Amino acid sequence: MSSRPRPPERLEKTLARVAREQGLDQERLRRWVSFLALCGALDRATQAGVLGGYYLKGGVAMELRFAERARATKDLDLGMEGPRANRLEALSQGLGLGFDQFTFRVKAQTRDMEEADTIRVSVAIQYRTRSWQTIEVDLGPANVGHVDQIEPRVRGLVELGIPVITSVRCLGLPEQVAQKLHACTGPSAAGRARDVLDILLIDTLGELDYPATAGAARRVFEERATHAFPPTFVMPPEWRPELENLALELGLTLATAAEIEQRFLEIIRLLERAAPTHKQ
Known about the structure:
Helices cover 46% and strands 19% of the residues. It is of the alpha+beta class. Strands 1-2-5-4-3 form a five-stranded mixed sheet. Helix 7 runs parallel beside helix 9 (239-250) and helix 8 (210-224) packs across helix 10 (257-273). It is globular, with a radius of gyration of 20 Å.
């Protein structure tokens, strides 16, 4: 008498097993799956003509580029074409197409962030018939020309045995560094200490293109017109413990707040001296 075939392992159980075997944080792996499933739905919507141009930015773009070398993040930042209200409608229609066996529901409650021309929404994700996760999505404007197609470098996806997209649209690194530099040195810099560490990480990994970033920074500072390039920077005292903890977490050789501040100021000076170029 032949034995019955074993039923397929539930994704929730597979997630726990793969995270354990790969030495990954289980919730971080879950978020990677959520982010990439949502990107799969957006790509499908773009190909169907439901959605215009979009790209990832912020911490998720950093994670998909650099995996565990980047800090973990919980929110997904998107650059999308159109006014805020149109972006929300386009997102809802696009996610309605789903991806593989993932389905998405944009919750009704939203938060407008006027200064950043951004709307924040919550997206509930299901896999088959089971609740998977709810993530926060920030819909900002898509106002740059250069977007990179990035192959996600995160681990554990193949072992999960679920379809994932092979490349994701990410804001170009020079533009991302320029925006972070503007944010963490400007009048609304409170709470932006993590941007300093993101820039230092990109520099440490040898991924900081100084001429292209100098060109992007000059344009971003001119367009936003809140403070001049090159910016002045004095590290707020309340940032010091956060930056030291983040540097330790990311394995950077810069251990103290003084070292972090010194290197960050050096990067600003190098950007000031670099002959700017512009990526197309």
